[in-house]
Amino acid sequence: MISVLLVDDEALVRAGLRLILQTASDVTVVGDAEDGRAAIEAVRRHRPDVVLMDVRMPHLDGVAATAALKAEPHPPAVVVLTTFNTDDDVFRALAAGATGFLLKDTPPTDLLRAVRLAAAGDAMLSPSVTRQVITRFTGDDGSRRREALAELESLTGREREVLVEIGRGAANAEVAARLHMSEATVKSHVTHLFEKLAATNRVQLAIAAFRAGLVD
């Protein structure tokens, strides 16, 4: 059972998210919070697997709350929710350690998939959002690409292949199918990628792949 905490300053949004999540037999909502401060307290109390985090809230916004949660001993996966797909705060939240990003009008099936992926250590980003994130954090400068390629020199051939698939937005199961390996092996490669590239989430791995020119 995947436990989820809902964080949004609008009660109606929290109620709507709860209704959607309650349709899944493998997901349970363990609590909610109306701002970042309350979210931190609720996470310490309920220890959820996944937090659905609004970006813009009073007292403590979603960016600061995400950074605070990621500093906890056993942090949950944080999926950022917003109404703006070009919101600068979204990029800052991803840099702070959020594992994914969804618009609030995301279809229910995609919301549930995002929660499941986040709980499994994967991330869900729509292609258009991924491109915006990559553009935000990278550039087309040739020297940057050379530097990015140099950072990948320690990777094995297989790790590089996994990195490319992550850059294309593939979840672990999809990477396993495409590269004809077990999902456990993929997870092992992903762990090595985190260590070798000093990354904390899959978004950062995807950025590394784009910066090095491994993914168009």
TrEMBL record:
Residues 3-119 form the Response regulatory domain. Coiled coil: none annotated. CDD domains: LuxR_C_like, REC_NarL-like. The modification 4-aspartylphosphate is found at residue 54. It comes from the Bacteria. Residues 148-213 form the HTH luxR-type domain. GO terms for molecular function: DNA binding. Pfam families: GerE, Response_reg. GO terms for biological process: phosphorelay signal transduction system; regulation of DNA-templated transcription. SUPFAM superfamilies: C-terminal effector domain of the bipartite response regulators, CheY-like. Keywords: DNA-binding, Phosphoprotein, Transcription, Transcription regulation. This is Response regulator containing a CheY-like receiver domain and an HTH DNA-binding domain. It comes from Cryptosporangium arvum DSM 44712. The lineage of its organism: Bacteria, Bacillati, Actinomycetota, Actinomycetes, Cryptosporangiales.
